[in-house]
Amino acid sequence: MSASPSVSVPGSAPRVGVWLIGARGSVATTVVAGCAALTAGLHAPTGMVTETPLFAGVGLPPLASLVFGGHDTTDCALPKRAEALAEGGVLPHGLPEAVTAELAAADAEIRPGGPLPGDTRTPDELISAFTADLQDFVRRRGLTRAVVVNVASTEPAPTDTAPPPSSLYAAAALRAGCPYVNFTPSTGLDHPALASLAESAGVPWAGRDGKTGQTLLRSVLGPMFAQRALTVRAWSGTNLLGGGDGAALADPAAAAAKNAGKERVVTDTLGTAPEGETHIDDVPALGDWKTAWDHIAFDGFLDTRMVLQTTWQGCDSALAAPLVLDLARLLARAHEAGLTGPLPELAFYFKDPAGEAPSALGEQYAALAGFAERLRTGGRDLPTAGAVADGPLPAGPEDGPPAAGRGPGRTPPSGPRRPGGPGPRPVRDPGPRPVRDPGPRPVRDPGPRGEAR
Ligand SMILES: NC(=O)c1ccc[n+]([C@@H]2O[C@H](COP(=O)([O-])OP(=O)(O)OC[C@H]3O[C@@H](n4cnc5c(N)ncnc54)[C@H](O)[C@@H]3O)[C@@H](O)[C@H]2O)c1
């Protein structure tokens, strides 16, 4: 992180921007506070895959080189937001005070998002405003590049041809020549109106909707049932969560996009669609803690009926933030290496990967390992769809029908996802984590009573 009196930035490390859409939300605040905490050595990088030996020598930007900014439609300052998260046990007590300079520096780089209530700007005017904010950020802070990450509230799928706000931000990222990550189930780049812009922008992009809890587990268990030749008859799931995400997902139209991703992972890994549905309930009392319950009815030898039940209790933002930091670093490095277009090798992180990718976590990890290896060798052999965006900004988006699929203008496959992309590669055992003395640690509240972390 930069602009911090308490954190030393390596003198020669070029600075890389991380532009968060929804920059004042729980996930974004945890990203900024977490990055500052790791940089200052207050905590070990638990949960960050890019900090494992798998990524040694890959040339990822150091955490200390990341500069945060973004858009939001609310004006609650980041230090205050971080205090609220610490009170709820999401951030360790004492951390907001320890990294207050970094939070304030990021807060100073947050610009009003849109559309705001009563906003009369046209979609193209909004895209132009967002693009100008991004370009100003990159220029003013002397950044080599900036990665745009959508962590805004989940929006309902569009019902007409008009690009939703998430797509306006995605268009701005493309116009500004920035790599793009959609960590939410919202439409983002997957709108047909953005297809030609995405083709010509010359930037890499990753998938849609981060895979942090229930779906992560599903992407492990699905292949297990398939490989052991067990017949899954029904797979039902329920999620209880509160916080801003719980409130947004109380809207059935918003929850539909999320549930579709969770169910798709089951179908893709089993190769068939079992009975059962997935539900999300908003339980404000749980705050940022999520309980996800899966009930899997399956048949074994001689059609003997059996059941597996799993209960996942996690802190949503603590699960999501390390993945956002991983993705920002990976996309920045991919952009530096000249990669463009979808990166199916990052399927490991998503419910809905970009491009054709395997759906089992083991294969996704192998693909990620292959990606790390190729980045280490300078990006050789990596597929590219165009040139790196150093030229003039591409034109604005064109009109088109509403989004239906994954990736700009694509329609979803009707059957199971074909494993594709780079294919399985030998997995390198990351080995034991390097031990870092984290020094004195701010105390983390155990969270709501009775909830395991
Ligand atoms: N484990 C996880 O936490 C996880 C996993 C996958 C996906 N996600 C997704 O990440 C997103 C963020 O989750 P959260 O818990 O931080 O939610 P949150 O409600 O705390 O934060 C969302 C932020 O987005 C802002 N926002 C809303 N509309 C906006 C707009 N048009 N422009 C700019 N900003 C806007 C809100 O003001 C808020 O600050 C959600 O979409 C969620 O589904 C989270």
From TrEMBL:
Biased segments, Basic and acidic residues type: 426-453
PANTHER family per the UniProt record, alphabetical: MYO-INOSITOL-1 PHOSPHATE SYNTHASE
Superkingdom in the source lineage: Bacteria
Listed Gene3D superfamilies: Dihydrodipicolinate Reductase, domain 2, NAD(P)-binding Rossmann-like Domain
Recorded family membership: Belongs to the myo-inositol 1-phosphate synthase family.
Species for this entry: Streptomyces neyagawaensis
Domain Myo-inositol-1-phosphate synthase GAPDH-like stretches: 213-317
Compositional bias per record (Pro residues), positions renumbered to this chain: 410-425
Compositionally biased region (Low complexity): 390-405
InterPro entries: Myo-inos-1-P_Synthase, Myo-inos-1-P_Synthase_GAPDH, NAD(P)-bd_dom_sf
UniProt name for this protein: Inositol-3-phosphate synthase
Pfam short name (any one): NAD_binding_5
Region Disordered, residue ranges: 381-453
